[in-house]
Amino acid sequence: MDEKMTEAGPSAEVPQMPVVPGFAHRFVDIPGLRVHVAASGEGEPVLMLHGLPQHWWQWRAVGSALGERYRVICPDARGFGWSQAASPRIARYSMRDDVLALLDALELERVRLVAHDMGAVVAAQVAYAHPDRVQAMVILSVPPPFMRLGLGMLPAMRHVPKLRYRRAGSSLDWVLAPPYVATPMSEPTKEAYLRPLRDPAKDAAISEVYRGLLIGGEMPTLAMGTYRRRRLAVPALYCFGDRDEPLTADFVRKQSGDVSRFADHVEFASIPDAAHFATDDNPGAVTGLAKEFFARAA
């Protein structure tokens, strides 16, 4: 075991950690952050970046299945889950730099990525800035950054003001309910996702992500079309729930145009019977798409 990692146990004071058979829990110290990492399986590494307002447990089904072939590594992002940050502030590249520092700490030169929602934004930042660190990536529910923006995207942004300006401590149950899911989540599932946010420092991370990473960072760059003047060198599969209107695979494919102008290898896929939170709606389909793409993009 890497000397920078310690086994999570009673002394680590991790409250009410969800239990998933086959996953081991560790902490990795990087600059400004003690990262909680859940890992399963052996083999080539797959780094899995969760979305908002979730944490490592998002990958309980998909990660377990991928762990039959790969070594899956599921960190809690800065401000989320059981990771502990020295500062509550989240800047545009904070999470990207955390990922790179974590890869260095784990002595991983190159990984495959699976990422959803907020994690997908971070995955794109890593792939564009350090393509040598990413062998291939599967992105869930977020379009490629070179996609043209238009009025058709507005319904997909309906949650942004409510999350950016939410009152501290207010419920996030609505985020984990229709139309963001195709099948309503059970109350225990929602509780498992939202429990860490009872910590005020973790609750504040929701606004921080929108202030620093998104509205103050990536969104202006997307609006200016900056990524359409860059090139994505990492092979990527972009997957969308067929009920995640308007962000279906067909819509994103059409809006993206001739992807060969902007990327070396990009594919699009639809996830049946799924909305935004596809890993809960249809984890089997997500797993199948990831396995198949990684086998071809080896």
User: Which CATH first-tier class would you pick?
Assistant: Alpha Beta
Average pLDDT taken over every residue: 92
Largest sheet descriptor: 10 strands, mixed
Name the overall outline: globular
- CATH fold name: Rossmann fold
Could you tell me the strand content as a percent range?
15-25%
Low-confidence stretches: 1-14
The sequence of SSEs as H and E is: EEEEHEEHEHEHHHEHEHH
Q: How many DSSP helices?
A: 9
> Any idea how many domains?
1
Q: Helix- and strand-based class?
A: alpha/beta
How far apart lie the N and C ends?
26 Å
How many beta-strand runs?
10
CATH architecture term: 3-Layer(aba) Sandwich
CATH-defined superfamily: Alpha/Beta hydrolase fold, catalytic domain
Rounded to the nearest angstrom, the radius of gyration is 18 Å
What does this structure look like?
The protein is an alpha/beta fold and 298 residues long. It has a single domain, classed as 3-Layer(aba) Sandwich (Rossmann fold). It contains 9 helices and 10 strands. It has helices at residues 62-66, 94-105, 118-129, 160-164, 187-194, 200-223, 249-256, 278-281, 283-296, and strands at 5-7, 24-30, 33-40, 45-49, 71-75, 84-85, 111-116, 134-140, 236-241, 266-271. Strands 1, 2, 3, 4, 5, 6, 7, 8, 9 and 10 form a 10-stranded mixed β-sheet that branches. α2 crosses α3 (118-129). Mean pLDDT is 92; it is low at 1-14.
Summary?
With 298 residues, the chain is an alpha/beta fold.
